[in-house]
Amino acid sequence: MEPVITLQHVTRHPSTARHPIVNDLSLELHPGEILVLLGPSGSGKTTTLRLIAGLELPDRGEIMIRGVSAAGRGRALPPEARRVGMVFQDYALFPHMTVNDNIRFALHAYPKHEQPDRINEALRLVGLTGLGERLPHQLSGGQQQRVAIARALAPQPPVILLDEPFSNLDTALRDHVRSELRSILRTAQTSAIIVTHDQAEALAIADRIALLHEGVLHQIGTPEELFAQPCTRFAAAFMGQADFVTVHRNGQQLSSELGPLQLHDDHVACYEQTCILVRHDDVSFEPNAHHPNAHILERHYEGPMYHYRLRLQSGQMVSCKLPHDNKFDVGTPVVVRYICTHPLVYFIGENARSVATPIAL
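User: That's the sequence. What structure does it adopt?
Assistant: Structure tokens below.
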């Protein structure tokens, strides 16, 4: 199927900026897909959204919407001609207008006699039926967000763009609204691009994640691919707690302080520092005063779990989480070992080169 949105080598480099804000970015949004643009502040996420919406223009490259050029090659469609819905971080509702009138504002291209049905359908989609005569200040933060989403969906655009849609919500409400939004988009059969800096949000809502850093696309793939198969050390660290344990190679086997591993690809050359990516569920430990290979440096209570930071004898750090009834004191000598049977990502320098599986002892 033809992509809804296509970016080809898009660059945005204002004259006032030392480096490009968006640098040679290429990606596609597929029909019905939720694509999350993830990355730290300054990575180019919001600028990418604004380029797609037509609020900024690329200096190089091309943006296509449903196969039609919207920007590039000397062409630049204005925002209103792109049929792209936009939900801003602050929702951008008109405070003096009712909910109905806020939504009606997006329906200027529709005949007046069709607008009430479109408004009612949009309110039904977001679960706000019966609240059309209220003003924005009479709604909760979550309801205001749903009005903004209803306004974006009302003209039935092929895609809506959402900039940090959960940032103004408290933690207790965020998970609920996130699930609601995914359901709304699925029901509306609308493709979406969502900007966030929160890894948990991206993992929970995305069909695919595009990870950006300093304007460059580091990796794009499913949440599972980015978490379990990161292609760079930056991607590994940004997707969650990541520790990099030094390994030494001997043929197809690797040795490390946590035990041996079997390298899957023996054709990988290695001339730089090599390490294995370890996450907290890949290892476990037991107290051992006689033959320890680590000691507990930190312990943090997380409700159902304790998060332990363990210092290996080399000085390297690894994390481990245990149920709350396994409470060990800081300073306790321990033996820490791999407990996973799945392959772990093998890095040479900054880049992933292969995978290796722990060998049971």
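The chain has a mean pLDDT of 92.
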